[in-house]
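Q: Here's a chain of 80 amino acids. Please give me its 3D structure as tokens.
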Amino acid sequence: MVITVCVGSSCHLRGAYGVIEEIKRLIEEGKLPGKVELQAGFCLDNCRGAVNIKVGDTIISGVSSANVEEHLSGFLRSKD
């Protein structure tokens, strides 16, 4: 599973690097099953919805370090 976190201007200002740190924590704690590739990228074309992440071909908006695990849970269950 590839997870891309937007680090463009809007997402950066709304906490993209906190989201990245939280995903890293989830990976280290083993809450992300299987192989997970974490990437930073620029502009997922929804700046108003920042922070945006892309999981596979799906873009998720409104992500924060507090809710990233909740947003990823559906993807995680489908990988079990």
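Q: Can you summarize the key feature?
A: The helical segments are 9-13, 16-28, 68-79.
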